[in-house]
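lol so apparently i was supposed to do this last week
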Amino acid sequence: MIRLYNSSFSGNCYKIRLLLTQLGIPFEKIEVDILKAESRTPEFLAKNPNGRIPLLETESGQFLAESNAIIFYLSEGSQFLPQDRFLRAQVLQWLFFEQYSHEPYIATSRFWISYLGKAEEYQEALKQKQEPGYAALAVMNQHLQKHNFFVGEQYTIADIGLFAYTHVAHEGNFDLTQFPAIQTWIKRVESQARHISISK
Ligand SMILES: N[C@@H](CCC(=O)N[C@@H](CS)C(=O)NCC(=O)O)C(=O)O
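anyway here it is w/ glutathione bound
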């Protein structure tokens, strides 16, 4: 059985849990406490030298890190990844956008505020995350004003990748009320078959 080295709070891990559930693929969750540096032990580093979760262990014992690489791998041949070459590249475009322009601002703010409870301590750094975080949300909102989903008018892993931290952006002090198209898209994603919440 597939194994997921997981943290229940992590949006990056949630991407994998959501996709595996929607694909109907059973998997074993192995909880890794990152606050106790369990992803930095020699045993874990032997599996992922980058010392981070999520980490997927395939049935044949191969290890794959990076959330968006994992969902790309798992979705191959499914309805969640288009066949068309250009649409596949657009999926990657949004997944790279998520990692470079979105996650470092929105996910990190959420981690400091809602997981570590250190809003005061990180006040200055949090302030600096606001502008680029809102810029990413504005790009998404603009796209979603004209489209139901991110790629090819169908629910794909691009939506899963971006949904993970966007729907909990308020936990990082980002206000989504000024982005009505994102709010509608969130409801659309949540209404997909076999959707599970981040707490599952
Ligand atoms: N780009 C990576 C980010 C992975 C990442 O930052 N994971 C965090 C939890 S969400 C982690 O493992 N932190 C523990 C550490 O850095 O020691 C991905 O998309 O999977």
